[in-house]
Amino acid sequence: MTPKEHKPSPPKKAISLLRWFCRRDLLEDVEGDLHECFDFHVKSKGAGTAKWLFILDVLLLFRPGIIRYFNIFPSLNSNSMLKTHLKISWRNLLKNKNHSLINIGGLASGMAVAMSIGLWIQDELSFNKGHENYDHIARVMQHFILPKPGGSTKWVPVPVGSELEQSFGNDFKYVVTSSHTEDHIISKDNLSFSANGNYMQPDAPEMLTLKMLKGTRTGLGELNAVMLSESLAKKLFGEENPLHKIVKIDLKHEVKVTGIYEDLPKNSEFNDVSFIATWALYVSLNKWLQDSSDSWEYSSIQTFVQLLPHAKMDIVSDKIKNLIHDRREAHKNLRIETSLHPMSKWHLYGDFEDGKNTGGQIQFVWLFGIIGVFVLLLACINFMNLSTASAESRKKEVGIRKAIGSFRSQLIHQFFSESLLVAMVAFVIAFNILIFTLPWFNEVAGKQMDIPLSSPWFWISCIGFTLLTGTIAGSYPALYLSSFQTVKALKGTFRSGKFAAVPRQILIVLQFTVSVTLIVGTIIVYRQIQHTKDRPVGYSRDGLIYLKVNTGDVHKHFEVIRNKLIASGAIREMTESNGSVANYAYGVGGLEWRGKDPDFLDNFHISEISPEYGKTVGWEIVDGRDFSREIISDQKGLVINESAAKMMGLENPVGEIVKWAGKDWTILGVVNNLIVESPYQPILPAAYRLLDWPGNIVSLKISPSQSIRDALEKIEAVFKEYAPGVPFDYKFADEQYARKFNHEVRIGKLASVFAVLAILISCLGLLGLAAFMAKKRTKEIGIRKVVGASVFKLWKLMSKEFVSLVFVSCLIALPIAFFTMKSWLQNYEYRTGVSWWIFVAAGAGALVITLLTVSYQAIKAATASPVDSLRSE
Amino acid sequence: MKRAHLGEFEETVLLTVAILFGNAYGFNIKHEIEKRNQRKVSIGAMRTTLSRLEKKGFLVSELGEATKVRGGKRKRYFKVTPFGKKVLEEVMENRQQLWNAIPGAAFNF
């Protein structure tokens, strides 16, 4: 046997490269020529060189004229293919109206939810971005690390600003000291309005990059200058030019308008600042400020800074860490840290713990973002489930298409164009839903969002979003349906195997897991709100109103007004105070009493009141007595609440002496705990003392025998008489109290809407699936009926699968919900428990809803006459 | 009459196809040109030229029978068309006219 001569062959890689790029009509003879050339070279130059020459030749063939036409753009033919795809999709939609309705309806509501959440998130993320120096602006924060529990505040001591300029000046472009945003009366001639405003240093307009409509940003140079927002200027001056006109603040201080700025947008921290007066004026008006201008003990003002471009926020923040602590004289055992809170984090990262920025609103951005994605996912799952379920009825179509020469890729195209068509129709509907529900959504979310119709980004993201949804929703059906084998699909022997339904079942379980988790979450949020609302407030809110009085008029005529109103029967009692039932006036520490542990760091919240306060708000004296106007020495008395008594650790606090600010104060009485600040927090230790100067709040208890309207009219008349400049801008205590729940109520509302939508979409999907199942099993049910199955048995047969799936989802969802909600509740000191019945209720609810949904189809199928289903064929 | 343009390399290829009458296929043409003209010709350059000439109508081609060599690929045989011949003649005549027009003194070195 002669050994077969080993024949070298040209490199395979080069050949396949050639085959890939070469024109089809040239390929054969070119490849042959190359082969022959190769053999020739093998003989003349050897196999190795021949190989290299072969590769070189192939590469030299890569030139125009040889390279084939690559179909980069779809040719006319595939355009018409697309047209037929769309036509057939449209016909399919019309053919199965119920199916399409469920599909499109579910997808549209999912998209509408996702879009509104998208708008909401966009709005949240855009906070304060309107300020040009957004990246460089920060607020100085003060963190009380020790004693525990500490806390963080934006109020800082008065000298912080000047100290920052002196010691750290080369990091800052601007340092602006500012008052709180306070309610003041702004008036011109006999027009007066209550308006929020700040007293700020002259660099403020430049730092905040106010858009000046009139005047310049340098307008706050003079002591008596003021800048007004556009809307306030309109209210005061109408069409008149307000520049250089005089307005009065709190009816006393004449200031000159030096600028009008465009109202700050709703998503700016300074949105409610409708006037800016000068810091110098604020200092000259407030004696306490002059007194504390060098004091590092009292925190009463805000300080804003703008960094120079080269300065890094966190480095500078670290530098000033001990700014306040090192300069304090008293209470060195307190640990206080100072930091910069960048403007970009004001809104979304407002929470601090131990001086570290821990988050805040951002968790809701995440929460709602996730919910949005989930709701959309639910809708997509519906689409997938319904399409795969309907695969049975479309398998013949697929078979025939394949038999007459359709490629798998064409089938995939077909199903994708179907799902994209559905997605587009759904998008149009979702867009309309969004337009109609946006006002309502704005109200619930407390926002002013618009659909940014003119923004190309909006449209790009909408289109991208629709394509993405269509692709996700269509991916499973497209890939699954197109994989049918032609012969099997046509012969009818194609059986979706035992596990064909598994992906579908997993999707249903996923849907209901999300829905049940959302339901449990909603119930717990609502229970927490209710639980806190039911908390005893410790005073009577019925008919209690209060209003701000910044002028001294009411104080001057207090006795007269009070007597007149009581005599007229309009009110029961009236009081003036600093601090209200909603807020304390201020907090102090460093009080001393008998038996106090020297290391103990105390913390009292103070309100200054007139002696009628207790009777007005209706508190309850637990021990000792209330203040009295008759007893002069009560000026040096204190009434404390139970929480303060507990903190002081005194068994019999009444009669004890407390040293505070170098004076001795006698505890006159103990009152019950009043919820003043946050209803979710433990009751703060509080002490009440008598006013020694005019209070800024007047509270009135309307007599229960009077109708509120009559009473208000009488009160207004008397106030107009004695304090004509004070706008009669009263607030109801119960409404103000309810406002403390706004945030939670808002979240509860949104969460419940989403939960309802989630369960609705899931049920829509179930309904569609059940309908398909019923259709598929028509014959089976018919035969079963003929042999004697009862309607109940058939119903059980049909519902069993779905019910067990939902049951599994409950088992998965409940632990998830339990742990998430448990950790959410940890945010609240005063919280409800997570009781087992909520889970049972949510689970049972989901099961009942499932049963109702499925039963409709099951009973319809079970009660249909078997004659109809068996007659054909 | 507008004359079809024929490049230098195209002319060489066209002539070689005529020389190899009956046996003019890719590798042979390449080999022949390389032998006669002492220049390297890449398959790519030759093949594009052949296609171009065919497109212009100077050549026609047909596939032959499959053989065991050449990896079982068929050969494509080229043949000069009458139009091709006419163009070649035109080129030659044109050259001749140019030669004839040269005055005797020009090449008297």
TrEMBL record, chain A:
<feature type="transmembrane region" description="Helical">
    <location>
        <begin position="502"/>
        <end position="526"/>
    </location>
</feature>
<feature type="transmembrane region" description="Helical">
    <location>
        <begin position="415"/>
        <end position="437"/>
    </location>
</feature>
<feature type="domain" description="ABC3 transporter permease C-terminal">
    <location>
        <begin position="753"/>
        <end position="866"/>
    </location>
</feature>
<feature type="transmembrane region" description="Helical">
    <location>
        <begin position="101"/>
        <end position="121"/>
    </location>
</feature>
<keyword id="KW-0472">Membrane</keyword>
<dbReference type="InterPro" id="IPR050250">
    <property type="entry name" value="Macrolide_Exporter_MacB"/>
</dbReference>
<keyword id="KW-1133">Transmembrane helix</keyword>
<keyword id="KW-0812">Transmembrane</keyword>
<feature type="transmembrane region" description="Helical">
    <location>
        <begin position="802"/>
        <end position="821"/>
    </location>
</feature>
<feature type="domain" description="MacB-like periplasmic core">
    <location>
        <begin position="513"/>
        <end position="716"/>
    </location>
</feature>
<dbReference type="InterPro" id="IPR003838">
    <property type="entry name" value="ABC3_permease_C"/>
</dbReference>
<feature type="transmembrane region" description="Helical">
    <location>
        <begin position="364"/>
        <end position="386"/>
    </location>
</feature>
<dbReference type="InterPro" id="IPR047699">
    <property type="entry name" value="Permease_put_prefix"/>
</dbReference>
<protein>
    <submittedName>
        <fullName>ABC transporter permease</fullName>
    </submittedName>
</protein>
<feature type="transmembrane region" description="Helical">
    <location>
        <begin position="750"/>
        <end position="774"/>
    </location>
</feature>
<dbReference type="Pfam" id="PF12704">
    <property type="entry name" value="MacB_PCD"/>
</dbReference>
<feature type="domain" description="MacB-like periplasmic core">
    <location>
        <begin position="100"/>
        <end position="322"/>
    </location>
</feature>
<feature type="transmembrane region" description="Helical">
    <location>
        <begin position="833"/>
        <end position="854"/>
    </location>
</feature>
<feature type="transmembrane region" description="Helical">
    <location>
        <begin position="457"/>
        <end position="481"/>
    </location>
</feature>
<dbReference type="Pfam" id="PF02687">
    <property type="entry name" value="FtsX"/>
</dbReference>
<feature type="domain" description="ABC3 transporter permease C-terminal">
    <location>
        <begin position="370"/>
        <end position="483"/>
    </location>
</feature>
<dbReference type="InterPro" id="IPR025857">
    <property type="entry name" value="MacB_PCD"/>
</dbReference>
Automatic annotation (TrEMBL), chain B:
<protein>
    <submittedName>
        <fullName>Helix-turn-helix transcriptional regulator</fullName>
    </submittedName>
</protein>
<dbReference type="InterPro" id="IPR036390">
    <property type="entry name" value="WH_DNA-bd_sf"/>
</dbReference>
<dbReference type="InterPro" id="IPR052509">
    <property type="entry name" value="Metal_resp_DNA-bind_regulator"/>
</dbReference>
<dbReference type="InterPro" id="IPR036388">
    <property type="entry name" value="WH-like_DNA-bd_sf"/>
</dbReference>
<feature type="domain" description="Transcription regulator PadR N-terminal">
    <location>
        <begin position="22"/>
        <end position="90"/>
    </location>
</feature>
<dbReference type="InterPro" id="IPR005149">
    <property type="entry name" value="Tscrpt_reg_PadR_N"/>
</dbReference>
<dbReference type="Pfam" id="PF03551">
    <property type="entry name" value="PadR"/>
</dbReference>
